Structures
1.
Amino acid sequence: MPPRALAPYVECLWVHRLGDGDAVYEQPVLPDGRIDVVAVGDRVVLAGPASHSTTLRLTPGNLTVGVRFRSGAAPALVGASGADLRDLDVAPGDLWGRAGAVLASRIAESPGWQARLRVMAEVLTDRLPHARPPDPVGTGIAVLLAERPDRPLPDLAEHVGLSERQLRRRVEEAVGYPPRLLARVLRFQRFLHAARAAGPERSLARLAADAGYADQAHLTRESRELAGLPPGALLDWEAERLAG
């Protein structure tokens, strides 16, 4: 759980550790509408919202820790818009100057995941006096679209009392995506969550319908564009990696 003072901005703290072995581990990073502060080994970056998949190659024994921001909440605390961070990994020193450089050096000196997460939380907490509250439009639209990705843009704009142009600007500033791309990403994440819960007996056609796709072909197109693979191949690859 994030420290109480960071709760309006931070969704969770997370850890990913690999065991010892000989094989390099391939970890896909799929679009999810989030911004993270991440330490992969001793390298620290602010990972912006991804619009397409990438694959990290991690060596045995690798330790990765991160602070994940709520969708739309990061810019108010980190001092850069979601749109400016989209598809980028930014060194904290480039963004926060000396405070960011200190974060990177303290991470390198911290041996375990608990200490590293504590350093990240402390540095982010130190930024709170200069932060503004998260934009309720950016964070609120993310919640609405997570519940119903097919909600029309005019309906969303009317719901928050903005023009469609104003809504697009506010959402892209906060989240890093325009509303339609955000809806696509959140719908795909909904599919992935349901598919993982369903296990190997899953029906892609049923999962596509439940996630809000027009049909399985629609899901396949979206999976290729967002994840680089059709959904069946993506899930099989994930199962093989976890089994290994």
2.
Amino acid sequence: MAPRGRGRGRRHVEPPEVSAEELNAWFAGNLPDDWFAEATVVKFDRDEIIITGVLPLPKLGPDDDAALAAQARIAAFREKTRGERMEIAERAQATFLRKVSWAAACGDESEAYTTASVPVMTRLDLEERAVLDTLIDAGVARSRSEAVAWCVQLVADNESEWIDKLRDAMEGVTEIRDQGPESRG
């Protein structure tokens, strides 16, 4: 039987377990101190790490367009740091076996770039597909994939308290499991 993997000839290797504290420390040690106005926000899952940095606000006159200035600051940062960000991302990807994505915020503006859109396989019954197709027909989504993402965001927005409780409960399960006897694999 051939090894399961992502792509032809590649063997799939699960990314190592990592904590938010480890990732924050790793990126704090690898990012130039003068890039951001405050500590970065690092979010991650088993597929991707997203680093978001806050850029300092441009100095503006009273009649200047703050949104346009902030967007320009983000675009300039993206271009100016591209090579160095790519080098940092390559080292992080080799270490953590996850795609590294970047985002920047300035004032009320923010932009994510090089983010991963990870395919998720699922099987849906006729009624569930009909829901997605209704969202497409109504112009809410352009595809079933986008409709699924819309539904997931809707649950995240409207059931965030329940999702947080579920995450907290899972952390408790992980702690208890880690206290148990060693596996005899």
3.
Amino acid sequence: MNLQLSQVSYRIGEKCLLRDVSFQIGPGKLLVVLGPNGAGKSTLLHLAAGDYQPAEGEIRQFGHDPFNLPRSERATRIGVLPQSSRLDFPFKVREVVHFGRSPFVTSQKENKRVVAEVLLAMALDRIAERDYLTLSGGEKQRVQIARVLAQIWSVSQGTCLFLDEPLTSLDLAHQLMLMRLLKTLATGGHCICVVLHDLNLAMRYGDLIALLNGSGELAEFGEPPAVLTPQVIKAIFGVKTTLQPSQFNDRPGLLFE
């Protein structure tokens, strides 16, 4: 299994943020984490990435405990995009993306190749020489995503990518572009876990859904059509939903009432 959580719980003081979460992801899967505000989605992502140590339970990435991996190995196997990334220095876009290559002992030629490919994949090639501080919010978000992608871009196996609300500030075209790219990376063997709020994008692109309830428990886990039913959405989010046929694949779209 690429990623496995077994009865994982996490607490801060007496408050339990996550409770007895268990699931596993095999090769070639894109996991979308969903849930209401305060459900523990970001906490789950950081636990799975090895940033936090669980109070109970066990986490394995490709058979390893990510929390106990050496920092140098973590940096070349695990890429994490937090909800917000602040940078207050006037680096060029290309230089920021190049930061993602700093853990690797690779040639300058190889690093330039990877950075160029990631810039192109994230539609940043035309602004590669721009000052990062002059960019719009959506452009900055794409640069930060590209920086994290550069960490795992040239590694074909044994890597995990964790993205916490990466669609923030992105326009519709770039949201779709990113979801297609993440789907391709997952199919290529990377372990991709992403926190989203858009249920329709989760339905369309996710291979698996981990749906948390307001108590930090895993309410549902499985393929999107089995998880994102009107009954489940009403129970978790308190919103009435109807299913609509979709022309993109065999999965329905969601219409919110």
4.
Amino acid sequence: MKKEAPQVDKNNTVISIEGLEKSFGSLQVLKSLNLQVYKGENMVLLGRSGTGKSVLIKIIVGLMYPDRGSVKVLGQEVDKLDTKEMDAFRLKIGFSFQGSALYDSMTVRENLEFPLIKNKRDLDSREVNKAIEGVLSDVGLLKTIDQWPSELSGGQKKRVGIARTLILRPEIMLYDEPTSGLDPASSLEIIKLINEVQQKYHTSSIIITHDLTCAKFTGERIAVLLNGTIERLGSFDEVFDTDDPDIMSFYNYNFINES
């Protein structure tokens, strides 16, 4: 599997986290965590369950607040935003949920129409239809436009979920276990789609995954979250060029290595 070289601007940091700390009672989840994501970059976040990956993402989008440290996203201090500023800020962030989070009572068209009409009320019906058909075409599922979520495969649901996120043209994409629960062929389709989204929509992304195939073929850099902080950071090969048993334990996962 080959990936086109993305246009990563290392002089433009879209997510900057410095000295981040977060505790719940006596349990310290994040400890002096530092991380930067560049414009146009896919950053993969690896970590075992309970290591704070979800907490970190919630802090990035303002659903939780840090105890200490600085979190800047698109130049804004997230925990300093008021309600109106937060609403505008979140429109710039796309979140692809692990379970796709589609409304079962809505068709694919209606699932995509809902966030568009809610957030861009000045669009007429022609513009709405054009936007819906455009993103569905981009994820290869235009033919499903009038189907119900229950009629879709797991991989199709993931792709529709990504399309629904893309319809608002976010600057940053957050993917939560994008290949979880999928067969190998469907997983490879999602991996290719993540890279296509990066190229076509010029997004910067954080990809939470346990799937080393996904990590290797989507991420420019891999960040390994252990003991509440980033223990390793670099390319896939750089991260796993170590004898550290905590890092190498991730290699117990099988991944598909296609040329």
